[in-house]
User: Fold this.
Amino acid sequence: MAQENVSTGSSIVERNIFLTEKVMRFLLARPEYLAKLPQDFELVILPDDDSEIRQYNLELIDKYGCEGRPIVFARLKAHPVRMEDNVEPRLFIPVDLAA
Assistant:
């Protein structure tokens, strides 16, 4: 039973790494988007079509917090219909209420 949990966890981590790479490639190709993000932010991937990763990442925020850093949520499809589809993430950044 414990072995099953370990393999599930590593599968989620591997999928998270893959999705993080997609978001980072998107941002690096569009420096104007990257410039609008807050300094020293915490990136949280929330795939629209992978509830397991979405829930895992939300639980990580609850468990570890973000240590006072702004959180940027990236929503995207983890499983595009066709592999050649280049699905762009939607980024949600914090709003400064003091402004």
